[in-house]
Design brief:
Blueprint (H helix, E strand, L loop, with lengths): L5 H6 L5 E3 L8 H9 L3 E5 L5 H14 L4 E6 L5 H8 L5 E5 L4 H9 L3 E6 L2 H9 L4 E5 L5 E3 L5 H12 L4 E4 L5 H9 L5 E3 L1 H4 L8 H9 L5 E4 L1 H5 L9 E5 L2 H6 L3 H6 L1 H14 L22 H21 L8
Parallel strand pairs: 1-2, 1-9, 2-3, 3-4, 4-5, 5-6, 6-8, 8-9
Antiparallel strand pairs: 7-11, 10-11
Helix pairs in contact: 2-3, 6-7, 8-15
């Protein structure tokens, strides 16, 4: 591929695309499929379930023939879980939603590239001080957890300027090659894509969840705390989660205290709904780019299509310049 950036050079990639480490969705098979196709696949370690991580990291290490990585939610990552993940020899380690400095030294000492996902300039500067090799600028359009504060379009160049020469990756609302090309024009060295890979054949997402992603549009998503409250996930105040709107969300949105009071009944019902794939109750995390998801395909095909479209768009952009200036 003709697109060469600091990201492709660092990992020998064919495409400047990273699959987001979505908790319970981005397993070892998805990470390996993305990496083998020429992107950088990340296993979604989420809250640090040791048993799940051992199983999925073993799959990634066995099936991946090219560099792959892992990601954890920083504020709940215990040192022993970080060490467990490093034991499977990932090439990249992504930390999101919190101060990366307590874990940075161990990650860097293991020869792992440190990727830090942030939502503002202050967070980006902290990431650089921790030794981040790449900073992910996550806009509020992103699916799953993130901030309400900044959109991807203005955030990416702001962070690119603030932390230069540390390369920045764009995240939030990017689901095809047009989004990747736009991110590169904003000064990013690549894109982190989550929702699009949620709807990949190899993702661990429930088939009915993938069907909902294919059928949805961006206006069907909303940032909320409801799904964290019902699961008793005590996220820091700065972060909410973007998901597809469903009857459970409509019923409880902005009623957090009442939901806490009804926790005994609602939590067990929510767990049962999740287990049986009832997404009128259970959540489907989704970014605003969901409009662009029209099918469920193997990750390799998604990556190839994204890369080819980005390359075509970048070539087309040159034609917009017209003739040479006169006078």
């Amino acid at each position: 591929m003709a697109i060469e950036t600091s990201l492709t050079e660092a990992f020998g990639l064919d495409y400047p695309v990273v699959s987001a480490p979505m908790a319970s969705i981005s397993g070892g098979r998805l990470a390996a499929a993305v990496s083998n196709a020429g992107g950088l696949g990340l296993v979604g370690g989420g809250y640090g379930d040791a048993g799940w991580l051992r199983e999925e990291l073993a799959i990634a290490r066995t099936e991946a023939e090219r560099p792959w990585g892992v990601g954890l939610i920083t504020w709940c990552a215990e040192p022993e879980i970080v060490d467990l993940a490093l034991g499977y020899e990932p090439r990249a380690f992504m930390l999101s939603f919190g101060d990366p400095r307590p874990h940075a030294r161990a990650i860097k000492a293991a020869g792992c590239a440190l990727i830090c996902q942030v939502q503002d300039v202050e967070g980006a500067r902290i990431a650089v001080s921790a030794g981040a090799d790449f900073v992910v600028a996550q806009g509020t359009e992103a699916g799953g957890h993130g901030s309400d504060a900044r959109a991807t379009l203005p955030l990416v160049p702001a962070l690119a300027d603030a932390v230069s020469p540390t390369p920045v990756l764009a995240a939030g609302g990017i689901a095809d090659g047009r989004g990747l090309a736009a991110a590169l024009m904003l000064g990013a060295h690549g894109a982190l894509m989550g929702t699009r890979f949620y709807a990949a054949t190899e993702s661990l997402g429930h088939p009915r969840a993938k069907e909902r992603l294919v059928a949805a549009v961006g206006g069907n998503t909303r940032r909320t705390r409801v799904f964290d409250v019902v699961r008793d996930r005590r996220w820091p105040e700065a972060y909410t989660g973007r998901a597809l709107v469903n009857p459970f969300l409509e019923r409880w949105d902005n009623r957090d205290e009442e939901l806490v009071s009804a926790q005994d009944i609602e939590a067990s019902a929510f767990r049962a709904a999740t287990e049986r794939g009832d997404f009128d109750t259970a959540m489907v995390w989704s970014g605003e780019g969901v409009d662009l998801i029209t099918d469920v395909q193997p990750a390799a095909e998604l990556l190839l299509r994204t890369g080819a479209e980005a390359e075509a768009r970048l070539r087309l952009a040159g034609n917009l310049l017209g003739g040479a200036p006169t006078g």
